[in-house]
User: Fold this.
Amino acid sequence: MTTQTKPRLDPQTARQVIDPASYAQWTPLLDTFDRLREERPVVWVEAADDVHPPFWLVTRYDDVMRISKDNETFLNNPQTVVFSLTEGIEFAKNLTGGSPHLVASLVTFDAPIHMKYRKLTQEWFMPKNLRGVEDEIRQIASSAVDRLLEGGNEADFVKAVSAPYPLHVVMQILGIPEEDEPRMLMLTQQMFGGQDEDLNQSGVKNMTTEQITQLVAGAVKDFEAYFARLTAERRINPTDDVASTIANAKVDGEPLNDRDMMGYYIILAAAGHDTTSASTAGAMLALAQDPEQWARVRADRSFLPGIVEEAIRWTTPVQHFMRTAAADTEIGGQDVSKGDWLMINYVAANHDPAQFDDPRRFDSSRSPNRHLAFGAGAHQCLGLHLARLEMRILFEALLDRIETIELAGEPARSKSTFVGGLKTLPLRFEAA
Ligand code: HEM
Assistant:
C-alpha cells in the first residue's frame, strides 16, 4: 500500500543513531532527537553499509506510546526486539534454527504465548508480594551504604553502590548464591554492553562485528550452562525463590522447554540490575549537581518518590526496543508497510517537549510524569515496582547517612544503543 516515498535520514545522522559510541555523548544525541522530532518524527534509517538492517526511527512520545500499546499491529516478532547487526541476526538464526533471538524470553514473545509466560512470575513482582521482601532489601541497602562509607569519603558510586546493590537484590529474589553474583554481572554487561570495551571487559576498542557477536553469544552460553545446573537443583529441592517457580513451571500443562526456561532466567537476571543501576546513578548525579535539592529531600522525604520517578525518566536506561509491523499501517502520518522494522526510542520520547516541559531539566516536582522508561502495553516492565522500591529504599539509607555530596571527577556514560547510562560516577561525600 505504501505509495509515499520514504523520508530517509541523512547518512551522518543515521550513523549517530546506530553507533553505540554516540550514546556515550548524551547532549548531541538529545539535540539530534529534538531535531528529528520536529522535522521527521518517523524517519527511515538506512546505513550506508550492509552491516545494519534498515528501520523506522520513531521519536515522538505519542507515537512511541501508540506503538507500545497496540500489540496487535506492532509485534515483537518476527524480527529481533533489539537493534542488531545483520551479521548478529544471521548468527542467531543459524544457532537457533531460525529465530533472530539468541535468547527466547518474555520480550521475544507475542500473544497468546507471551501472557502465559508472563503470568508465571508476575505475582512475584507485584507490590503486595514485594512488601514481603522489603526488610531484606532495606538490609542490602544499609550494607551497601556501610561499605561506601567504610571506603573513605570518595568513591566511584557506580562501582561502589549503584551496580552491586540492585544486582544483589534481584539475585536474592531469583535465588542465586552471592558468590555467583560477579559472574552474573559480567555476563549481563557483556550481553548489554557488548560494544563498550570497559563493560565487556575485553579492553579491545572498536571490536569487529564478529568479535562482538562471539562475545555476546559466549555470554549467553555461559548463562545457559549456569541456569541448567540451577534448574536441576531446584527441581530436586524446590525453595521459595523465583528460580524454583521457573524450574517447576508449566505452560498449557507442559514444563517449559530448555530454551524458554533459560531465556526466562536470563531476562530476570539481566533486566533487573543494569537498568536500575543506571537510574540510581543518574539520580545521584542530578542530586550531586544540585546540593539544594539534596538538602531539601534530606529534610523532607516526601520529595523522594518524585526524585525516583524523575530519575527514571531523565536517565531512560532502556534506550529503545524494536517492533515489526504486522500489517500495512500508518504512524505519525507516515505510511508503514507490513514487515517494516521500527525503533521505539524511549530516550527521544521521554525528552519530547510536547509531553514534558523543559525535558532536559531534572525536575522532581514534575506532575504528571507519565514517562515511557518502563515501556507501555503488554510488555510494560515486569520489574517496575521493584525498581522504584529499590531506589526509594537505597535513597532513604543514603539520605540518612550522608550529609553532602559533590562530583569528584567526570562521569562517563556507556557506549551502548540498548541499555545505557553512567558507567562511572566519581563522588565526594561527607557522612552525616
Ligand atoms: C529503572 C529500571 C528499569 C527500567 C528502566 C526497565 C525498563 C524496561 C522496558 C523499557 C521494558 C520493555 C517494555 C515494553 O516493551 O513496553 C522492560 C521489560 C521488562 N523488564 Fe524492566 N526495567 C527496569 C527494571 C527492571 C527490574 C528491576 C526487573 C526485575 C526483574 C525488570 C524486568 C523486566 C522484564 C521481565 C521485562 C519483560 C516484560 C515483558 O516482555 O512482558 N525490569 N523493562
Remarks:
- The pocket of protoporphyrin IX containing FE is lined by residues 68, 106-107, 118, 170, 267-268, 271-272, 275-276, 279, 312, 317-318, 321, 346, 373-377, 379-383, 386-387 (CB under 6 Å).
- The mean pLDDT is 93.
- Residues 381 and 397 are 25 Å apart (CA to CA).
